[in-house]
Amino acid sequence: SIHSTMFANVRFDPLEGFDVPAGLGPLLFFLTLLTYLVVLLGNGVVMWVIVMDQSLHRPMYVMVCHLTVCDLIGGTALLPRIMLHLLTGERRISYGAAITQAVFVHTYAAAFQTILALMAYDRYIAVCKPLRYHSIMTSARLHLSCALAWFIAILAIFILFMLHLNEPLCGRTVQHIYCSNRTILALACGPTPVNNLYGHTGVFLIVFFSYAKILSVTTKQSRSESSIRSKAVQTCASHLVVYLVFEIATLILITLYRFPSVSTNIKKLLGILYILAPTTINPLVYGLVSKDLRASIIKLLSKKNHHRN
């Protein structure tokens, strides 16, 4: 067996199994580059607007800003490596680089979930305890909560990878579009049951509890208090869409891995969409659903064009 500390080169086949004619390499590189630019531009604009507009320095938008950081991490962990392969044909990757990519991919997923859980709790306080909201979600508590969300995510990933740091590896080919905990563990000489116990249960329970309480509060209101229902829908819709897109992508990917008969090409394609779907859709969701954010984007872009003229 070959131990990870001696495993200098893992053979990395990001497009293995895909029927990609040699002449389409430049086109696929261009499309991948275009997708990466969409991820950078979409999330960059949302982050820039939230930072620049003082009126958006509120808990919900501060958390959205943290989500854009997650999206940038996810897109950057995946797309540059694929572009390198398409441009140069390079298929080899060192063990250190493979672990680094896997760490960032999982950090994106873990931090995304912890921040979504924090946003669900924030919406719960805003809708169910509106009179106490500002006393509970102070600026200090907001930033502490965001820091805690990142700490929990990073700690979880650290523990996850420490569990297999010294795992002996016998395989040399990563059978996926990118390196992750699962694909690296697939190279292990023996079974790794402890490392596979990694799920979304905690985050799901927090989100489910928060929105169950929100639904309960809004449905108990009289018709004369319908504005509360409207407020709940306006403040929760974008968060729910983002959460559902991420969880549906995750659920489909996890389910497919339970069925070895499923085509490897399909698994790889969905592996890409698992990261790209949320990172490209999220800025559109917040930009279209959130009236305040949409108005701020238009205002700042208009002001910038006015200064140029």
UniProtKB/TrEMBL annotation:
Provide the G-protein coupled receptors family 1 profile domain boundaries: 42-286
Q: Under the GO molecular function aspect, what terms does this record hold?
A: G protein-coupled receptor activity; odorant binding; olfactory receptor activity
Q: Which GO terms describe its cellular component?
A: plasma membrane
The entry's localization annotation reads:
Cell membrane
Q: According to Swiss-Prot or TrEMBL, what is its membrane topology?
A: Multi-pass membrane protein
Q: Which SMART domains match?
A: 7TM_GPCR_Srsx
Tell me which Gene3D superfamilies the record gives: Rhodopsin 7-helix transmembrane proteins
Q: What is its main location?
A: membrane
Top-level lineage group: Eukaryota
The record, for InterPro entries, names: GPCR1_Superfamily_Member, GPCR_Rhodpsn, GPCR_Rhodpsn_7TM, Olfact_rcpt
Alphabetized, the UniProt keywords read: Cell membrane, Disulfide bond, G-protein coupled receptor, Glycoprotein, Membrane, Olfaction, Receptor, Sensory transduction, Transducer, Transmembrane, Transmembrane helix
Q: Which SUPFAM superfamilies match?
A: Family A G protein-coupled receptor-like (SSF81321)
Q: Name one Pfam family in it.
A: 7tm_4
- Segments traversing the membrane: 27-51, 63-83, 95-121, 142-163, 197-215, 236-257, 269-289
Question: What PANTHER family does this protein's entry cite?
Answer: G_PROTEIN_RECEP_F1_2 DOMAIN-CONTAINING PROTEIN, OLFACTORY RECEPTOR 2A12-LIKE
Give the protein name, as stated in the record.
Answer: G-protein coupled receptors family 1 profile domain-containing protein
